[in-house]
Write the structure tokens for this entry.
Amino acid sequence: MIIVAAAAAVLLMAIFSRAAAQAEVIDRIVATVNGHVILQSDWNEALCYEALLNGRQVSQFTDDERRAVLDRLIDQELLGEQMKSAAFQHATEAEAAARIAAARKLYPEAATSAGWQLVLARFRLTEKDLIAHVQKQIDVMRLVDAHLRPGVQIDSKTIEAYYRDKFVPQLKQSGAGEVPLADVSGKIRELLTEEKVNELMVSWLQTLRAESKVSMLGLPGPVAEGVQTQ
């Protein structure tokens, strides 16, 4: 009996040790941003969000794309700190729901409520969490716009240069008829503004990283699709 009890105890210890080891692998710290922890489960969930919203499977993401998702998580943390002192209109659930409705069309089986729930379940997400995630994405972009767009000025010479050097050649290549500059100057201005905002955002994020304490720990790569925090 003593031998049996001892064997059972050893078996239980082995089981618990294995479970603990699995939990450690499934959820570990992959990065810290000014003391805020980003867990591997956060990374996994971010991959699921991006996959669902873009009509992809997590298994289709390359290693570089996976690391890019983690980089975006870090950027969101840095920008989230800036939101505390910024003034802009936060996204509503209705605005987030409108964007989700567009993503939902990527899945034919999601035409019904039951089918949509199956899609969400496949990515281990809930509609409530998805709405909150999209709201955060919208808020980040509005923060960037509020901070950077007012300082962007596109003059008429820059618009004319783009029209002459890029827009007109593209029209000729496509075989389309000529379009007067006056008809497209507004669209060109907006396009160039967006490009400039994106450039400034990259520079801003580089500055925020340089001024912050960001650590990326040993990165084994996200675990299998849909695995959540244990």
